[in-house]
Design goal:
The protein is of the alpha+beta class. The protein contains four helices and ten strands; from the N terminus they run E-H-H-H-H-E-E-E-E-E-E-E-E-E.
Length: 205
C-alpha cells in the first residue's frame, strides 16, 4: 500500500505558494478526484492570500506584515494536509493515483504487519482562536495518520479533516468555544487501522 508524502517539510512561504499551486493544478479537473476536499476554490483563495502577504513582506517587512504571512502560511499548510488526507483515501493506496495529484509517494519501509490503532489521543491547550490541538502516541511503522472529526457524538458523524506524518495535529477555523470530537487512524504498509478512541476537544476561544 502506497502512502502520500505531504511534502511540507522545508517549505518556506515563497516555495509553499508554488507547491500548493502545483497541487491545485493537478487535482482540479482530475477525473480521479471528483469532489476534492478542500474545495479547489478555497485552496486557490488561500494561495492568493499567501502570495499577497509574501509581496507585502518584500515591500515592507514589518511585524504586521510578517504576522499576516504566518497566518496565511498556516492556512495553506492546513489545506494541503487536508488535501493529502483526501488523496490518500481516494487512492486506496494506488501509487499512480497519488502521483496524479501532484503529491509524491512515501518510500516504503519494511513490512511489519498490521498496526494497532492509535492510542492516548488527547487535546492540548492552545491560544490560537478557533483551533483544536491534538496529540497521540506514535505507532512504530506508521507512514501516515488520518484525522477525523465529528461535530456530535450521538451518533458520531466522522469526516476526514486532514493527514499528518507526525503524532500531532492542529484543526483550525473551528467555532470558538464549541466542542468537537476527534479520532485518528494509522496507515502502514499493511493498510489502515480502525479509529482510535474518540477525544472531545473544545476549540480555543
Amino acid at each position: 500500500m502506497s502512502t502520500v508524502k505531504i511534502g511540507l517539510t522545508g517549505q518556506n512561504a515563497t516555495s509553499l505558494v508554488a507547491y500548493a499551486q502545483a497541487l491545485h493544478d493537478k487535482v482540479k479537473g482530475n477525473p480521479n478526484f471528483a469532489t476534492p476536499t478542500p474545495a479547489m476554490a478555497d485552496l486557490e483563495t488561500a494561495i492568493g492570500t499567501l502570495a499577497t502577504t509574501n509581496a507585502a513582506v518584500d515591500a515592507n517587512p514589518g511585524p504586521v506584515e510578517h504576522q499576516a504571512r504566518r497566518v496565511a502560511m498556516a492556512a495553506v499548510e492546513g489545506l494541503v494536509r487536508q488535501l493529502a488526507g483526501y488523496v490518500q483515501a481516494i487512492s486506496a493506496g494506488d501509487a499512480d493515483i497519488i502521483l496524479s495529484s501532484g503529491f509524491a509517494v512515501r518510500r516504503k519501509g519494511s513490512p511489519i504487519g498490521e498496526l494497532p490503532r492509535p492510542t492516548k489521543l488527547e487535546s492540548l491547550l492552545t491560544n490560537t482562536t478557533g483551533r483544536g490541538s491534538l496529540r497521540w502516541q506514535a505507532e512504530y511503522g506508521a507512514d501516515l495518520y488520518h484525522v477525523f472529526m465529528s461535530e456530535s457524538n450521538e451518533p458520531f458523524n466522522w469526516q476526514l479533516v486532514g493527514a499528518t506524518t507526525k503524532s500531532r495535529f492542529n484543526a483550525d477555523s473551528l467555532e470558538p468555544g464549541k466542542f468537537y470530537w476527534f479520532a485518528v487512524t494509522a496507515i502502514g504498509t499493511a493498510g489502515e487501522t480502525s479509529l482510535s478512541e474518540p477525544c472531545r476537544v473544545m476549540a480555543a476561544a
